[in-house]
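Record type: ASSEMBLY
Status: queued
Input:
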Amino acid sequence: MTVLFSSILTSRSLGNFSFNVINKACACLKSSTVFRDSMETASDLTYIEVKDDNPLDLFREWQQEAKNCATIMPATFCLATVSKEGKVSARNLILRRLDEDGFVMMTDRRSRKSQNLSEVPSAAMCFLWAYKNDTGEHVARQVRIEGPVAEMKKEDYQELYDSEPLPCKIRSHICHQGKKVEWDELKASHDRVMQSVVDGKTDLPMPDHFVAYKLEPLTMEFYGQRDHLIADRVSFAKDSKTGAWNHHHLAA
Amino acid sequence: MTVLFSSILTSRSLGNFSFNVINKACACLKSSTVFRDSMETASDLTYIEVKDDNPLDLFREWQQEAKNCATIMPATFCLATVSKEGKVSARNLILRRLDEDGFVMMTDRRSRKSQNLSEVPSAAMCFLWAYKNDTGEHVARQVRIEGPVAEMKKEDYQELYDSEPLPCKIRSHICHQGKKVEWDELKASHDRVMQSVVDGKTDLPMPDHFVAYKLEPLTMEFYGQRDHLIADRVSFAKDSKTGAWNHHHLAA
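Status: finished
Output:
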Protein backbone atom coordinates (compact mmCIF):
# COMPACT_ATOMS: atom_id res chain seq x y z
CA MET A 1 0.00 0.00 0.00
CA THR A 2 2.46 2.58 -1.28
CA VAL A 3 -0.50 4.84 -1.37
CA LEU A 4 -0.57 5.85 2.25
CA PHE A 5 3.05 6.60 2.05
CA SER A 6 2.85 9.25 -0.65
CA SER A 7 0.00 10.90 1.10
CA ILE A 8 1.96 11.30 4.27
CA LEU A 9 4.80 12.85 2.41
CA THR A 10 2.49 15.56 1.17
CA SER A 11 0.52 16.12 4.35
CA ARG A 12 0.93 19.49 6.01
CA SER A 13 0.90 21.04 9.47
CA LEU A 14 -0.38 18.05 11.40
CA GLY A 15 0.24 19.50 14.84
CA ASN A 16 2.48 18.35 17.63
CA PHE A 17 1.48 15.19 19.46
CA SER A 18 2.99 12.69 21.85
CA PHE A 19 3.56 9.19 20.58
CA ASN A 20 6.00 6.28 20.62
CA VAL A 21 6.86 4.07 17.70
CA ILE A 22 9.17 1.08 17.70
CA ASN A 23 11.54 0.63 14.80
CA LYS A 24 14.46 -1.62 14.21
CA ALA A 25 17.78 0.07 13.51
CA CYS A 26 18.09 1.46 10.01
CA ALA A 27 21.61 0.27 9.24
CA CYS A 28 21.37 1.11 5.59
CA LEU A 29 20.68 4.75 6.23
CA LYS A 30 22.73 5.26 9.34
CA SER A 31 25.89 4.08 7.62
CA SER A 32 25.46 6.67 4.94
CA THR A 33 25.81 10.41 5.23
CA VAL A 34 24.72 10.82 1.64
CA PHE A 35 21.27 9.27 1.87
CA ARG A 36 19.88 10.74 5.04
CA ASP A 37 16.69 12.70 5.54
CA SER A 38 15.58 12.82 1.98
CA MET A 39 12.79 10.78 0.48
CA GLU A 40 14.44 11.24 -2.90
CA THR A 41 17.53 9.37 -1.87
CA ALA A 42 16.73 7.41 1.29
CA SER A 43 14.60 4.38 2.05
CA ASP A 44 14.04 1.86 4.82
CA LEU A 45 11.43 -0.42 6.38
CA THR A 46 9.04 0.22 9.24
CA TYR A 47 8.86 -2.57 11.83
CA ILE A 48 5.76 -3.53 13.79
CA GLU A 49 6.56 -5.18 17.10
CA VAL A 50 4.02 -7.68 18.37
CA LYS A 51 4.16 -8.06 22.14
CA ASP A 52 1.05 -10.16 22.59
CA ASP A 53 -0.67 -12.97 20.75
CA ASN A 54 -4.08 -11.31 21.09
CA PRO A 55 -4.63 -8.81 18.25
CA LEU A 56 -7.40 -7.09 20.22
CA ASP A 57 -4.73 -5.86 22.64
CA LEU A 58 -2.69 -4.42 19.77
CA PHE A 59 -5.84 -2.85 18.37
CA ARG A 60 -6.58 -1.19 21.72
CA GLU A 61 -3.00 0.03 21.97
CA TRP A 62 -3.04 1.56 18.50
CA GLN A 63 -6.45 3.15 18.92
CA GLN A 64 -5.48 4.61 22.30
CA GLU A 65 -2.33 6.08 20.82
CA ALA A 66 -4.38 7.62 18.00
CA LYS A 67 -6.72 9.12 20.60
CA ASN A 68 -3.78 10.44 22.63
CA CYS A 69 -2.48 12.14 19.50
CA ALA A 70 -5.80 13.94 18.99
CA THR A 71 -6.50 12.09 15.77
CA ILE A 72 -9.85 13.13 14.36
CA MET A 73 -12.53 10.47 14.69
CA PRO A 74 -10.36 7.64 16.04
CA ALA A 75 -13.39 5.33 16.40
CA THR A 76 -14.42 5.63 12.76
CA PHE A 77 -14.10 2.68 10.43
CA CYS A 78 -15.17 1.85 6.93
CA LEU A 79 -17.57 -1.10 6.78
CA ALA A 80 -17.74 -3.13 3.58
CA THR A 81 -20.69 -5.43 2.97
CA VAL A 82 -21.99 -7.37 0.00
CA SER A 83 -25.45 -8.25 -1.30
CA LYS A 84 -26.50 -11.79 -2.18
CA GLU A 85 -25.95 -10.80 -5.83
CA GLY A 86 -22.32 -9.97 -4.98
CA LYS A 87 -22.66 -6.18 -5.17
CA VAL A 88 -20.24 -4.58 -2.74
CA SER A 89 -20.77 -1.34 -0.81
CA ALA A 90 -18.84 0.67 1.78
CA ARG A 91 -19.57 3.43 4.28
CA ASN A 92 -18.12 4.83 7.51
CA LEU A 93 -19.47 3.95 10.92
CA ILE A 94 -18.39 4.46 14.50
CA LEU A 95 -17.18 1.65 16.70
CA ARG A 96 -19.65 1.73 19.59
CA ARG A 97 -17.97 -0.75 21.84
CA LEU A 98 -15.17 -3.29 21.75
CA ASP A 99 -16.17 -6.44 23.61
CA GLU A 100 -13.87 -9.38 24.22
CA ASP A 101 -15.63 -11.26 21.44
CA GLY A 102 -16.06 -8.51 18.87
CA PHE A 103 -16.73 -5.05 17.49
CA VAL A 104 -20.12 -3.44 18.11
CA MET A 105 -21.81 -1.13 15.59
CA MET A 106 -25.31 0.33 15.29
CA THR A 107 -27.53 1.25 12.39
CA ASP A 108 -31.05 1.38 10.97
CA ARG A 109 -32.43 -2.06 10.17
CA ARG A 110 -33.97 -0.63 6.98
CA SER A 111 -30.55 0.45 5.65
CA ARG A 112 -28.71 -1.17 2.75
CA LYS A 113 -26.00 -2.48 5.08
CA SER A 114 -28.62 -4.25 7.20
CA GLN A 115 -30.16 -5.71 4.05
CA ASN A 116 -26.67 -6.87 2.98
CA LEU A 117 -25.93 -8.37 6.40
CA SER A 118 -29.25 -10.26 6.41
CA GLU A 119 -28.24 -11.83 3.10
CA VAL A 120 -24.49 -12.26 3.66
CA PRO A 121 -23.74 -12.14 7.41
CA SER A 122 -20.07 -11.28 7.25
CA ALA A 123 -18.18 -8.05 6.63
CA ALA A 124 -14.84 -6.26 6.48
CA MET A 125 -13.92 -3.29 8.68
CA CYS A 126 -11.06 -0.91 8.05
CA PHE A 127 -9.70 1.63 10.56
CA LEU A 128 -7.21 4.34 9.56
CA TRP A 129 -5.25 6.62 11.88
CA ALA A 130 -2.75 9.22 10.70
CA TYR A 131 -0.97 11.75 12.87
CA LYS A 132 2.33 13.40 13.68
CA ASN A 133 4.04 12.38 16.91
CA ASP A 134 5.95 14.54 19.38
CA THR A 135 9.26 13.80 17.72
CA GLY A 136 7.87 15.06 14.42
CA GLU A 137 7.37 11.66 12.80
CA HIS A 138 4.36 11.11 10.55
CA VAL A 139 2.56 7.93 11.46
CA ALA A 140 -0.04 6.05 9.41
CA ARG A 141 -1.71 2.94 10.76
CA GLN A 142 -4.46 0.80 9.38
CA VAL A 143 -6.27 -2.14 10.91
CA ARG A 144 -8.32 -4.45 8.71
CA ILE A 145 -10.77 -6.84 10.36
CA GLU A 146 -12.91 -9.56 8.83
CA GLY A 147 -15.41 -11.99 10.27
CA PRO A 148 -19.03 -13.00 10.70
CA VAL A 149 -21.58 -10.41 11.83
CA ALA A 150 -24.54 -11.17 14.08
CA GLU A 151 -27.45 -9.04 15.20
CA MET A 152 -27.36 -8.36 18.94
CA LYS A 153 -30.17 -8.71 21.43
CA LYS A 154 -31.97 -5.49 22.32
CA GLU A 155 -30.95 -5.69 25.97
CA ASP A 156 -27.30 -5.80 24.93
CA TYR A 157 -27.41 -2.42 23.18
CA GLN A 158 -30.29 -0.56 24.85
CA GLU A 159 -27.74 1.40 26.89
CA LEU A 160 -25.99 2.49 23.68
CA TYR A 161 -29.23 4.02 22.42
CA ASP A 162 -30.04 5.54 25.78
CA SER A 163 -26.71 7.37 25.86
CA GLU A 164 -27.18 8.89 22.40
CA PRO A 165 -27.39 12.70 22.31
CA LEU A 166 -30.75 14.25 21.46
CA PRO A 167 -30.14 14.91 17.72
CA CYS A 168 -29.17 11.24 17.22
CA LYS A 169 -32.37 10.08 18.86
CA ILE A 170 -34.41 12.50 16.77
CA ARG A 171 -32.62 11.26 13.64
CA SER A 172 -33.52 7.69 14.56
CA HIS A 173 -37.15 8.72 14.76
CA ILE A 174 -37.47 10.87 11.63
CA CYS A 175 -35.05 9.19 9.19
CA HIS A 176 -35.80 6.07 7.21
CA GLN A 177 -32.12 5.56 6.42
CA GLY A 178 -31.28 5.52 2.73
CA LYS A 179 -34.81 6.45 1.62
CA LYS A 180 -35.37 9.28 -0.85
CA VAL A 181 -36.60 12.41 0.92
CA GLU A 182 -37.58 15.99 0.24
CA TRP A 183 -35.35 18.07 2.49
CA ASP A 184 -38.11 20.53 3.42
CA GLU A 185 -40.45 17.72 4.45
CA LEU A 186 -37.76 16.12 6.56
CA LYS A 187 -37.03 19.48 8.15
CA ALA A 188 -40.72 19.95 8.98
CA SER A 189 -40.83 16.46 10.46
CA HIS A 190 -37.73 17.23 12.50
CA ASP A 191 -39.21 20.43 13.86
CA ARG A 192 -42.44 18.69 14.86
CA VAL A 193 -40.53 16.03 16.79
CA MET A 194 -38.28 18.65 18.33
CA GLN A 195 -41.34 20.58 19.48
CA SER A 196 -42.79 17.42 21.05
CA VAL A 197 -39.55 17.01 22.99
CA VAL A 198 -39.66 20.64 24.10
CA ASP A 199 -43.27 20.19 25.18
CA GLY A 200 -42.35 17.08 27.15
CA LYS A 201 -44.66 14.91 25.02
CA THR A 202 -42.04 12.30 24.11
CA ASP A 203 -38.77 11.01 25.47
CA LEU A 204 -37.91 9.38 22.13
CA PRO A 205 -37.80 5.68 23.09
CA MET A 206 -35.60 3.34 21.04
CA PRO A 207 -37.35 2.60 17.72
CA ASP A 208 -37.76 -1.02 16.60
CA HIS A 209 -35.57 -0.37 13.55
CA PHE A 210 -32.64 0.67 15.75
CA VAL A 211 -30.30 -2.32 15.62
CA ALA A 212 -26.79 -3.26 16.71
CA TYR A 213 -24.45 -5.84 15.23
CA LYS A 214 -21.30 -7.48 16.47
CA LEU A 215 -18.48 -8.51 14.15
CA GLU A 216 -16.45 -11.38 15.54
CA PRO A 217 -12.92 -11.07 14.15
CA LEU A 218 -11.42 -14.11 12.44
CA THR A 219 -8.59 -12.18 10.77
CA MET A 220 -6.99 -8.88 11.76
CA GLU A 221 -4.24 -7.17 9.81
CA PHE A 222 -2.12 -4.32 11.11
CA TYR A 223 -0.43 -1.95 8.69
CA GLY A 224 2.07 0.51 10.12
CA GLN A 225 4.22 3.18 8.58
CA ARG A 226 6.48 5.92 9.85
CA ASP A 227 7.60 8.91 7.79
CA HIS A 228 8.81 7.88 4.35
CA LEU A 229 9.71 4.34 5.41
CA ILE A 230 8.17 1.39 3.62
CA ALA A 231 5.26 -0.01 5.63
CA ASP A 232 5.23 -3.22 7.61
CA ARG A 233 2.17 -5.46 7.94
CA VAL A 234 1.29 -8.12 10.49
CA SER A 235 -1.56 -10.50 9.83
CA PHE A 236 -3.39 -12.38 12.61
CA ALA A 237 -5.63 -15.39 11.98
CA LYS A 238 -7.76 -17.22 14.51
CA ASP A 239 -7.47 -20.99 14.63
CA SER A 240 -11.02 -22.27 14.14
CA LYS A 241 -10.44 -25.28 16.41
CA THR A 242 -8.46 -23.87 19.32
CA GLY A 243 -9.51 -20.23 19.08
CA ALA A 244 -5.84 -19.29 19.39
CA TRP A 245 -4.39 -16.46 17.30
CA ASN A 246 -1.26 -16.80 15.21
CA HIS A 247 0.48 -14.10 13.23
CA HIS A 248 3.15 -13.35 10.65
CA HIS A 249 4.51 -10.36 8.74
CA LEU A 250 3.23 -9.55 5.25
CA ALA A 251 4.86 -7.66 2.40
CA ALA A 252 3.32 -4.20 2.01
CA MET B 1 -25.19 7.40 9.96
CA THR B 2 -25.52 8.76 13.46
CA VAL B 3 -22.09 7.38 13.95
CA LEU B 4 -20.09 10.18 12.41
CA PHE B 5 -22.08 12.61 14.41
CA SER B 6 -21.17 11.25 17.82
CA SER B 7 -17.56 11.07 16.88
CA ILE B 8 -17.46 14.70 16.00
CA LEU B 9 -19.01 15.58 19.27
CA THR B 10 -16.16 13.91 21.08
CA SER B 11 -13.32 15.05 18.85
CA ARG B 12 -10.81 17.39 20.41
CA SER B 13 -8.50 20.25 19.39
CA LEU B 14 -8.92 19.95 15.65
CA GLY B 15 -7.07 23.13 14.79
CA ASN B 16 -8.28 26.26 13.11
CA PHE B 17 -8.94 26.09 9.41
CA SER B 18 -10.69 28.15 6.77
CA PHE B 19 -13.86 26.73 5.27
CA ASN B 20 -17.37 27.58 4.09
CA VAL B 21 -20.46 25.48 4.55
CA ILE B 22 -23.95 26.18 3.26
CA ASN B 23 -26.87 25.59 5.55
CA LYS B 24 -30.51 26.50 5.41
CA ALA B 25 -31.84 28.64 8.21
CA CYS B 26 -32.41 26.79 11.47
CA ALA B 27 -35.78 28.24 12.37
CA CYS B 28 -36.42 25.73 15.09
CA LEU B 29 -33.37 26.68 17.03
CA LYS B 30 -33.24 30.36 16.26
CA SER B 31 -36.73 30.90 17.62
CA SER B 32 -35.73 29.39 20.92
CA THR B 33 -33.39 30.82 23.49
CA VAL B 34 -33.67 27.68 25.58
CA PHE B 35 -32.35 25.15 23.08
CA ARG B 36 -29.34 26.88 21.61
CA ASP B 37 -25.74 25.67 21.50
CA SER B 38 -26.25 22.47 23.40
CA MET B 39 -26.32 19.01 21.90
CA GLU B 40 -28.34 17.85 24.88
CA THR B 41 -31.23 20.11 24.07
CA ALA B 42 -30.83 21.30 20.47
CA SER B 43 -31.12 19.62 17.09
CA ASP B 44 -31.40 20.53 13.42
CA LEU B 45 -30.60 19.32 9.90
CA THR B 46 -27.57 19.94 7.75
CA TYR B 47 -28.34 20.91 4.15
CA ILE B 48 -26.19 20.01 1.15
CA GLU B 49 -26.60 22.43 -1.73
CA VAL B 50 -26.08 20.97 -5.19
CA LYS B 51 -25.07 23.64 -7.70
CA ASP B 52 -24.22 21.36 -10.58
CA ASP B 53 -25.60 18.16 -12.11
CA ASN B 54 -22.12 16.61 -12.37
CA PRO B 55 -21.14 14.91 -9.09
CA LEU B 56 -17.46 14.95 -10.08
CA ASP B 57 -17.56 18.74 -9.70
CA LEU B 58 -19.00 18.44 -6.22
CA PHE B 59 -16.41 15.79 -5.39
CA ARG B 60 -13.61 18.14 -6.51
CA GLU B 61 -15.09 21.00 -4.51
CA TRP B 62 -15.32 18.92 -1.33
CA GLN B 63 -11.87 17.41 -1.72
CA GLN B 64 -10.33 20.82 -2.39
CA GLU B 65 -11.99 22.24 0.70
CA ALA B 66 -10.64 19.31 2.76
CA LYS B 67 -7.16 20.05 1.38
CA ASN B 68 -7.50 23.76 2.16
CA CYS B 69 -8.40 22.84 5.73
CA ALA B 70 -5.20 20.80 6.09
CA THR B 71 -7.14 17.58 6.50
CA ILE B 72 -4.75 14.65 6.88
CA MET B 73 -4.58 12.42 3.81
CA PRO B 74 -7.39 14.03 1.78
CA ALA B 75 -6.76 11.69 -1.19
CA THR B 76 -7.21 8.53 0.87
CA PHE B 77 -10.21 6.31 0.32
CA CYS B 78 -11.32 2.90 1.46
CA LEU B 79 -11.72 0.43 -1.41
CA ALA B 80 -14.11 -2.49 -0.96
CA THR B 81 -13.89 -5.47 -3.28
CA VAL B 82 -15.38 -8.94 -3.33
CA SER B 83 -14.15 -12.37 -4.40
CA LYS B 84 -16.10 -14.62 -6.75
CA GLU B 85 -17.14 -16.58 -3.64
CA GLY B 86 -18.68 -13.38 -2.25
CA LYS B 87 -16.05 -12.70 0.43
CA VAL B 88 -15.71 -8.96 0.95
CA SER B 89 -12.53 -7.08 1.87
CA ALA B 90 -11.54 -3.45 2.42
CA ARG B 91 -8.33 -1.43 2.59
CA ASN B 92 -7.21 2.17 2.14
CA LEU B 93 -5.65 3.47 -1.06
CA ILE B 94 -4.71 6.83 -2.47
CA LEU B 95 -6.55 8.44 -5.34
CA ARG B 96 -3.81 8.87 -7.93
CA ARG B 97 -5.72 10.89 -10.47
CA LEU B 98 -9.27 11.97 -11.17
CA ASP B 99 -10.02 11.77 -14.89
CA GLU B 100 -13.23 12.93 -16.49
CA ASP B 101 -14.32 9.30 -16.77
CA GLY B 102 -13.16 7.96 -13.44
CA PHE B 103 -10.97 7.46 -10.38
CA VAL B 104 -7.43 6.12 -10.88
CA MET B 105 -5.72 3.87 -8.31
CA MET B 106 -2.56 1.75 -8.38
CA THR B 107 -1.55 -1.52 -6.78
CA ASP B 108 0.35 -4.80 -7.11
CA ARG B 109 -1.29 -7.18 -9.57
CA ARG B 110 -0.50 -10.05 -7.18
CA SER B 111 -2.53 -8.48 -4.34
CA ARG B 112 -5.87 -9.74 -3.07
CA LYS B 113 -7.67 -6.69 -4.41
CA SER B 114 -6.33 -7.37 -7.92
CA GLN B 115 -7.42 -11.00 -7.60
CA ASN B 116 -10.86 -9.78 -6.49
CA LEU B 117 -11.10 -7.28 -9.35
CA SER B 118 -10.14 -9.94 -11.90
CA GLU B 119 -13.05 -12.04 -10.62
CA VAL B 120 -15.60 -9.31 -9.89
CA PRO B 121 -14.65 -6.15 -11.83
CA SER B 122 -16.57 -3.62 -9.78
CA ALA B 123 -15.93 -1.95 -6.44
CA ALA B 124 -17.03 0.61 -3.88
CA MET B 125 -14.88 3.57 -2.78
CA CYS B 126 -15.44 5.63 0.35
CA PHE B 127 -13.77 8.99 1.11
CA LEU B 128 -14.01 10.63 4.52
CA TRP B 129 -12.95 14.16 5.45
CA ALA B 130 -13.33 15.67 8.91
CA TYR B 131 -12.06 19.04 10.04
CA LYS B 132 -12.88 22.21 11.92
CA ASN B 133 -13.48 25.34 9.89
CA ASP B 134 -12.40 28.90 10.61
CA THR B 135 -15.66 29.71 12.31
CA GLY B 136 -15.17 26.80 14.68
CA GLU B 137 -17.66 24.43 13.07
CA HIS B 138 -16.86 20.72 12.95
CA VAL B 139 -17.43 19.33 9.49
CA ALA B 140 -17.66 15.68 8.45
CA ARG B 141 -18.13 14.72 4.82
CA GLN B 142 -18.21 11.36 3.16
CA VAL B 143 -18.37 10.46 -0.53
CA ARG B 144 -19.34 6.94 -1.57
CA ILE B 145 -18.68 5.87 -5.15
CA GLU B 146 -19.60 2.65 -6.92
CA GLY B 147 -19.02 1.37 -10.42
CA PRO B 148 -17.12 -0.97 -12.73
CA VAL B 149 -13.34 -1.12 -12.49
CA ALA B 150 -11.06 -1.70 -15.48
CA GLU B 151 -7.33 -2.23 -15.72
CA MET B 152 -5.58 0.64 -17.48
CA LYS B 153 -3.02 0.46 -20.27
CA LYS B 154 0.58 0.77 -19.17
CA GLU B 155 1.12 3.96 -21.16
CA ASP B 156 -1.76 5.58 -19.28
CA TYR B 157 -0.10 5.21 -15.88
CA GLN B 158 3.64 4.99 -16.63
CA GLU B 159 3.97 8.63 -15.53
CA LEU B 160 2.36 7.79 -12.19
CA TYR B 161 5.05 5.20 -11.52
CA ASP B 162 7.81 7.46 -12.78
CA SER B 163 6.83 10.19 -10.33
CA GLU B 164 6.89 7.85 -7.32
CA PRO B 165 9.48 8.67 -4.64
CA LEU B 166 12.42 6.28 -4.27
CA PRO B 167 11.07 4.22 -1.32
CA CYS B 168 7.85 3.52 -3.24
CA LYS B 169 9.80 2.29 -6.24
CA ILE B 170 11.96 0.09 -4.00
CA ARG B 171 8.84 -1.26 -2.34
CA SER B 172 7.43 -2.17 -5.74
CA HIS B 173 10.58 -4.13 -6.46
CA ILE B 174 11.04 -5.98 -3.14
CA CYS B 175 7.46 -6.57 -1.97
CA HIS B 176 5.18 -9.30 -3.24
CA GLN B 177 2.14 -7.58 -1.78
CA GLY B 178 0.21 -9.62 0.75
CA LYS B 179 2.73 -12.49 0.78
CA LYS B 180 4.06 -13.82 4.07
CA VAL B 181 7.59 -12.55 4.74
CA GLU B 182 10.33 -12.72 7.32
CA TRP B 183 11.03 -9.12 8.25
CA ASP B 184 14.81 -9.61 8.40
CA GLU B 185 14.88 -11.16 4.94
CA LEU B 186 12.82 -8.33 3.51
CA LYS B 187 15.14 -5.84 5.20
CA ALA B 188 18.18 -7.55 3.67
CA SER B 189 16.52 -7.52 0.27
CA HIS B 190 15.71 -3.85 0.72
CA ASP B 191 19.29 -2.99 1.60
CA ARG B 192 20.64 -4.87 -1.43
CA VAL B 193 18.33 -2.97 -3.76
CA MET B 194 19.14 0.30 -2.03
CA GLN B 195 22.85 -0.37 -2.49
CA SER B 196 22.28 -1.07 -6.20
CA VAL B 197 20.58 2.30 -6.48
CA VAL B 198 23.45 3.99 -4.63
CA ASP B 199 25.94 2.27 -6.94
CA GLY B 200 24.02 3.41 -9.98
CA LYS B 201 23.33 -0.18 -11.07
CA THR B 202 19.55 0.20 -11.40
CA ASP B 203 17.04 2.97 -11.94
CA LEU B 204 14.19 0.75 -10.74
CA PRO B 205 12.03 0.50 -13.89
CA MET B 206 8.31 -0.12 -13.51
CA PRO B 207 7.77 -3.81 -12.64
CA ASP B 208 5.27 -5.85 -14.66
CA HIS B 209 3.14 -6.39 -11.57
CA PHE B 210 2.68 -2.64 -11.09
CA VAL B 211 -0.87 -2.01 -12.27
CA ALA B 212 -3.42 0.81 -12.32
CA TYR B 213 -7.20 0.60 -12.40
CA LYS B 214 -9.91 3.10 -13.15
CA LEU B 215 -13.29 3.04 -11.43
CA GLU B 216 -16.02 4.58 -13.58
CA PRO B 217 -18.64 6.00 -11.22
CA LEU B 218 -22.27 4.95 -11.77
CA THR B 219 -23.48 6.14 -8.38
CA MET B 220 -22.01 8.77 -6.05
CA GLU B 221 -23.42 9.66 -2.67
CA PHE B 222 -22.48 12.74 -0.67
CA TYR B 223 -22.93 12.77 3.10
CA GLY B 224 -22.44 16.08 4.88
CA GLN B 225 -22.69 17.10 8.49
CA ARG B 226 -21.91 20.21 10.49
CA ASP B 227 -21.45 20.31 14.27
CA HIS B 228 -24.19 18.39 16.05
CA LEU B 229 -26.71 18.80 13.22
CA ILE B 230 -28.26 15.72 11.67
CA ALA B 231 -26.54 14.86 8.41
CA ASP B 232 -27.90 15.39 4.91
CA ARG B 233 -27.21 13.00 2.03
CA VAL B 234 -27.45 13.52 -1.73
CA SER B 235 -27.36 10.53 -4.05
CA PHE B 236 -26.38 10.80 -7.74
CA ALA B 237 -27.11 8.07 -10.29
CA LYS B 238 -25.97 7.97 -13.90
CA ASP B 239 -28.60 7.24 -16.53
CA SER B 240 -27.26 4.22 -18.42
CA LYS B 241 -28.80 5.39 -21.71
CA THR B 242 -28.10 9.10 -21.77
CA GLY B 243 -25.11 9.25 -19.43
CA ALA B 244 -26.82 12.12 -17.62
CA TRP B 245 -26.69 12.35 -13.83
CA ASN B 246 -29.72 12.85 -11.65
CA HIS B 247 -29.83 13.31 -7.91
CA HIS B 248 -32.04 13.45 -4.83
CA HIS B 249 -31.68 13.79 -1.06
CA LEU B 250 -31.58 10.71 1.16
CA ALA B 251 -32.45 10.27 4.83
CA ALA B 252 -29.31 9.91 6.93
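Annotation: The domain at 2-250 of chain B is CATH 2.30.110.10 (Pnp Oxidase; Chain A).
Annotation: Residues 1-38 of chain B have pLDDT under 50 and may be disordered.
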